[in-house]
Amino acid sequence: MPIVKFVLPDGTEQPIDVPVGWSLMEAARREGIEGIVAECGGGAICGTCHVHVDPEHFSAIAAPDMSESALLQIVPDPSPTSRLSCQIIMTDSLAGMSVRIPVEQLML
Ligand code: FES
Questions:
Q1: Into which family does the record put it (predicted)?
Q2: How confident is the model at residue 45 (pLDDT cuts 50, 70, 90)?
């Protein structure tokens, strides 16, 4: 099963198994990753699953739709590799990806 590494704002790394076909958010919630709140349950309307994707894997993720793109304009601490983890569907090509959780996510 592919592994994705979540990096907390303090640098703590938490690698988790993410089944192919699952969203990153679903796997993070299952594993209790701090900072992935996912208030809307994956509907791309809350922004509480925001992550910064490592640059090496960013282009391997399907492009965001209009809803996600709009929400990414207003999330706290946006970056050029910001994505909603509920919209990142795991594939084998994303194995080894690293995502950083913005510090604001821990204040929700
Ligand atoms: S869970 Fe709400 S936007 Fe991702």
A1: Belongs to the adrenodoxin/putidaredoxin family.
A2: very high
Q: Domain with 52 in it: what CATH number?
A: 3.10.20.30
pLDDT in tens, 57-81: 999 999 999 999 999 999 999 999 9
Look at the chain and report how many structural domains it folds into. Answer: 1
Atom of ligand 1 nearest to the CA of 40: 2
Q: What is the 3-state secondary structure (H, E, C) of the chain?
A: CCEEEEECCCCCEEEEECCCCCEHHHHHHHHCCCCCCCCCCCCCCCCCCEEEECHHHHCCCCCCCHHHHHHHCCCCCCCCCEEEHHHCECCHHHCCCEEECCHHHHHC
Q: Which domain holds residue 54?
A: 3-107
| CA 104–ligand 1 middle distance (angstroms) | 15
